[in-house]
Amino acid sequence: MLFKKPMQDAPDLNPRSTRRHQRAEATRRQALSPVRILIMVLLLPLTTVLIAVGVFIRVSEYNRDEAVIHLIALAGCDATQAMGIGPFREGQPGYHTRNDPDGDGVACGFAETPAPQAALSESRPEPQQRAVGNAKFVRP
After folding, report:
1. Residue 49 and residue 67: Cα distance in Å, rounded?
2. What sections of the chain are H helices per DSSP?
3. Three-class SS state of 69
4. Tell me: the pLDDT tens digits for 1-18?
5. At residue 131, does pLDDT exceed 90?
6. Which tens digit of pLDDT belongs to each residue from 72-117?
7. Is the dihedral of CA 81, 86, 88, 93 positive or negative?
């Protein structure tokens, strides 16, 4: 026979292989430590939320800054006031109908009082805008 079968019960004479096996076993024990597994399980909801926010920002019809504001406003008016943003008008990012209880078109704030008639006649009407995705079109 050209090839000898290694003996199962023979001690390993190579000291390098025993150190390698010891390091591998230590790494395996560290990877499966209960503390490490607990940390990974506790961080799973945070990881899920970060992935969901990233996906929302990428697929949102608003640009990145507006999408973040829209997401913060979804948490409620208290969150937007803590951040120092708002009020939000209907059709703008950050407006959610659930944050507009009186239905006046202004969420997380009070509706502005109408300007006097004299001031309205002096000001020019603003051109109508239409948005498709991130592109905005102005009608003359």
Report:
1. 15
2. 15-31, 34-59, 64-75, 77-83, 117-122
3. helix
4. 565 555 555 555 566 778
5. no
6. 998 888 888 888 888 999 988 989 888 888 888 899 875 454 555 5
7. negative
Token pair of 21 as six digits: 């096996």
Cβ neighbours for 96, distance < 8 A, ≥ 6 positions apart: 73, 74, 88, 107
Q: Residue 94: which of 82, 106, 103, 102 has the closest Cα? A: 106
Given a contact cutoff of 8 angstroms between Cβ atoms, the answer to whether 77 and 107 are in contact is yes
Give, as one character, the DSSP assignment of residue 110. Answer: P
Say which residue the tokens 């608003």 belong to.
Answer: 62
DSSP symbol at 113: P
Residue 136: what are its φ and ψ, rounded to 5°? -120, 135
What is the C-alpha separation between 58 and 52, in angstroms, rounded?
A: 10
Peptide bond into 87 cis (omega under 30): yes
